[in-house]
Input
Amino acid sequence: MPDTDRPGLKKSNNMPNISKNFYTFVIGTFEKKENIHYMKFIVSSAELLKGILAVSKAIPAKSSQPILENYLFVLDGSQLEITASDTELTLRTQVEVESSEENGQIAVPARHITDLLKELPDQPLSIITTGDSSFECRWASGTSTLPYFPAADYPSITTTDDTAVTLTFPAQSLVEGIAGTIYATADDEIRPAMNGILFDIDQDSTTLVASDSHKLICYTTKDVKASEKASFILHKKPAAVLRSIIGKDIENVEISFDSKNAVFKFDKTMVVCRLVVGKYPKYRDVIPQNNSNILRIDRVQFLNTVRRVSVCTNKASNLIKFDMTHNSLELSAQDLGFSIAAYEKVPCQYDGEDLTIGFKSTFVTEILSNMSCNEIVMKFADSRRAALVVPSEEEAESEKICGILMPIMIS
Output
């Protein structure tokens, strides 16, 4: 069969026959391949690096969808939109480009482009697609050729629907609330709701709650209210990402959420999170209301003492024992298997019945180290029921945060 009669080839009287998969030159012009995503723009290398690092935490280490190991670049005029996703968490930001000639969208290998930009000093960087599977990064003294993949292969990002609730959260309160609760989340395959932070939104305040059944932490802010009661559970992974990327210069975060997803918007960044499906336990029912044995103590001094004494705890139980009498607290720990023990008395104010109670030392350390007050108050009922940990009434955050700590049996 003559070449000109083969399917897929274009017949021309003035030039050789070539496949439609390549340029067909006709009288000094050419036709563009349908599967090339043309793009050409100039951007600051430092700004581009800043943009991709802002979304890089959503790139999965390994994925069943290799396309997710890429950044999605979408150029529209002077704005370059950069997206990274693992389908559960999506991060998207915008970078201002210095000039653009061809709009388009391509998926760019995350590791290669990140490693290249980290090695470049700040300078104008030209990014130009050169074929159906590669693009060039050109800077003052060199060029790098990298592969790209069709943007059509990148999964679509689902946000919220028409039922979404929208509210504004002061950025630093959100960061503080996540930081003050995330360490209390669980790793529970049976109860996935415990692996996240509950946002309990009411008409006069919002409370962030986390618990692993051994300890429970609540952070309450009156700066966030809603016309109707609502709630959602944010998994601890996107919560940790939010905490790390919200800068101190950000004033407010706009949050919208429905039954499946939550969207956080601030500055030029958008975070889309798949919410945890499940019902959170009625946490308010377990907060002690009438614990009458009251311990007041300097938080930092108490924390340091717990750390010293806990060196000698049994590594299986991490048991540290509290012996309290009037204005006296003695902490002790021992591991009979290694013949080690420690005890220390701590200055305090204690008003209540003589009481001996045991706690897991690592839980006590976590709660104390994640509070920022000068003095804390611990309230006890007896040796078997949960203790309440709060900042003293004189502290500005006294109504903002509280912790509940379950005791362990002393043999």
